[in-house]
Amino acid sequence: MLTFENVSQHYGSFRALNGISLHAKEGELVVLLGANGAGKSTIFLTASGLLRATGGSIRFRNQELAGLKASQVVERGVVLCPEGRKLFPQMSVLKNLMLGAYVHRGDKAGNQRKLQEVFELFPILAERREQTAGSLSGGQQQMVAIGRALMGRPQALLLDEPSLGLAPLVVKQVFEVIQRINRAGTTVLLAEQNAYAALKIASRAYVIESGRIVMEGDRDTLLGNDTIRKAYIGA
Ligand code: ATP
């Protein structure tokens, strides 16, 4: 179980998160909806130790994450796939993937097994493993970003806008992969602008506005909610 309790975050004096409380149960796929600037990325950066929470508690399987370094958060099983992919474009696909395994660098056999799993999930990356990441299509680069996160061996995976800027067919593939990862047992917290597709594969969702949670509910309740449909689904 991943739990945020009254988490706050500031950029200077600007309060980006204002008492965020949310949770994802073991094996759940939970979606964070919200307009640009609502605070979704800040939630992820704070959970993954890239920003230090200015208040509150973030726990995974009863261990406190707030205050840990990013590498320690990965060691505890919580891994971020960041918005905008953040690949090293001049480095090969393989090297980008292996960066995700940095905290497990002592376990070469385990990393090879994990790499095979990533290649089974994304066969195209096996074919292109020696190519530079920057030479791949947007969708393939997103696969590298997800694959790199998987190399960190997540028990909870934080996915920030994985479908951003991708063509509809590729978006569909990305959502199918996320669903497969989740069905194989990984808890997923997914921030998405693509609200309909995200809700379809989610069990629950939270709606964030100006750093606060303004609504939460299970998939069907939110899919049927007029405000949600108008604001996020455009139907
Ligand atoms: P997006 O999908 O556009 O990334 P988001 O919901 O992820 O939106 P955040 O990136 O978390 O939103 O931003 C939350 C708020 O914090 C916004 O008002 C944003 O302008 C502000 N913010 C984000 N990063 C910084 C920063 N480094 N310095 C100052 N303010 C920031």
UniProtKB/TrEMBL annotation:
InterPro entries: AAA+_ATPase, ABC_transporter-like_ATP-bd, ABC_transporter-like_CS, BCAA_Transport_ATP-bd_LivF, P-loop_NTPase. It comes from the Bacteria. One of its GO terms (molecular function) is branched-chain amino acid transmembrane transporter activity. It comes from Ramlibacter pinisoli. Belongs to the ABC transporter superfamily. Pfam families: ABC_tran. Keywords: Amino-acid transport, ATP-binding, Cell membrane, Membrane, Nucleotide-binding, Transport. Residues 2-235 form the ABC transporter domain. GO terms for biological process: L-amino acid transport. This is ATP-binding cassette domain-containing protein.
